[in-house]
Design brief:
The structure is a single chain. The chain is of the alpha/beta class. The protein has twelve helices and seven strands. Strand 1 (48-52), helix 4 (58-67) and strand 2 form a beta-alpha-beta unit.
Length: 284
C-alpha cells in the first residue's frame, strides 16, 4: 500500500495544532454533520466501535453515550495534537459512562486489531487515503460480519459555498495553478462523486452501500464579520493558501474575504451552506 505519510505530516504540523486551538469553533461550525452521520449508525449498549479520524473527539463523545454501559471504543487518528486533545475529553466520559476507551495514534489504512468491531464511524475522516480501496479493505477486515458503517464526507467543492465562496475570494488575489489538481487526490472533497464512493466500498467488500445527501449551515461566526474572516483564514483550503503568502499578499487576501463576506452577515452571525454525503454500508 502506498504511504499516507504526506497526510500524516500535514496533520501533525501547524494545521493539527490550529485545529486543537480552535476546536470549539470548529465543533460549532460542522457539528451538525457528525450528529447526522451518527444517527444513521445502529448502536447498542455494549457494542465495540471504531472511530476513524476521531480528531479532538467531539463526535466520539456521542458514540460513548450510545454504547454505554459496557461498550468498547477505539478512537484512531494520525494527528498527535488532535489525539492529545481527545485524550483530555474521552477517557473521563468513558469512565463516567462505563465504556472502555482506547486512543490510538495510527493510520487507519493499516491499523490492525486483535478483536473485531461491531461498527465503524467517521466524521470527515476517511477522505485522505492515498489508496482508498485498500484502506477500506483493511477497515472491513477489522469489522465483524454484517457490521454497519456510517460516515460523513463532503460533496463537491462547488456544492459547498462555505468553502467555494471563500476560496474563490482568495483566488482573486492568488490565482489558481495552471494545472488543475486531481479531484480525487486525498483531501476534504476527494469523496464528492457518489459513484466513486460507491465503487470504493463495493470493491472493498461492503454491501448495502447508500449515500444520502445532507445539508446544514456551516457557522463561520456568531460574533461578527472579523471573527468569520479569522476562522476562514485559520482552517480550511483558504487558510492553507493564506499561510503560504507574504505579509503583503496575505493582507490583500484578508481584505478580499472581508468584502466578500460582509454582505452575508446577519446581525453578528454568518453562516454559509454546507453539503455532505451520509454514507452507510455493511461489512460482507
Amino acid at each position: 500500500m502506498t504511504s499516507n505519510q504526506a497526510q500524516i505530516d500535514y496533520w501533525n504540523g501547524p494545521v493539527g495544532e490550529r485545529w486543537v486551538t480552535y476546536q470549539e469553533l470548529l465543533d460549532r461550525s460542522i457539528g451538525a454533520f457528525g450528529v447526522a452521520a451518527l444517527e444513521r449508525l445502529p448502536l447498542a449498549p455494549g457494542a465495540r466501535v471504531l472511530d476513524v479520524g476521531c480528531g479532538a473527539g467531539t463526535c466520539t463523545l456521542g458514540v460513548i453515550d450510545r454504547i454505554a454501559p459496557g461498550g468498547e471504543l477505539v478512537a484512531v487518528d494520525v494527528s498527535q495534537p488532535l489525539l492529545r486533545r481527545a485524550g483530555e475529553r474521552l477517557p473521563a466520559r468513558g469512565a463516567e459512562r462505563g465504556v472502555s476507551v482506547e486512543l490510538v495514534l495510527a493510520d487507519a489504512a493499516t491499523y490492525r486489531t486483535h478483536k473485531p468491531f461491531d461498527a465503524l464511524f467517521s466524521r470527515f475522516g476517511v477522505m485522505f487515503f492515498v489508496e482508498p480501496v485498500a484502506a477500506f479493505e483493511n477497515l472491513r477486515e477489522a469489522l465483524a460480519p454484517d457490521a454497519p458503517l456510517a460516515f460523513a464526507c463532503w460533496q463537491a467543492l462547488a456544492d459547498n459555498p462555505w468553502c467555494a465562496i471563500t476560496l474563490s475570494a482568495a483566488r482573486r488575489v492568488v490565482p489558481a495553478p495552471a494545472e488543475s489538481p486531481d479531484p480525487r487526490a486525498p483531501g476534504p472533497f476527494a469523496f464528492a462523486d457518489r459513484d466513486y464512493v460507491q465503487g470504493i466500498l463495493t470493491q472493498a467488500g461492503f454491501v448495502e452501500v447508500a449515500l444520502t445527501p445532507f445539508e446544514a449551515p456551516v457557522v463561520l461566526s456568531t460574533t461578527g464579520l472579523e471573527a468569520a474572516v479569522d476562522q476562514v483564514l485559520r482552517v480550511g483550503p483558504a487558510a492553507r493558501l493564506y499561510a503560504e503568502q507574504t505579509a503583503e499578499v496575505a493582507a490583500k487576501v484578508r481584505n478580499e474575504l472581508t468584502r466578500e463576506l460582509a454582505p452575508r452577515l446577519d446581525g453578528d452571525a454568518l453562516s454559509l451552506p454546507g453539503r455532505a454525503w451520509l454514507v452507510t454500508a455493511r461489512a460482507r
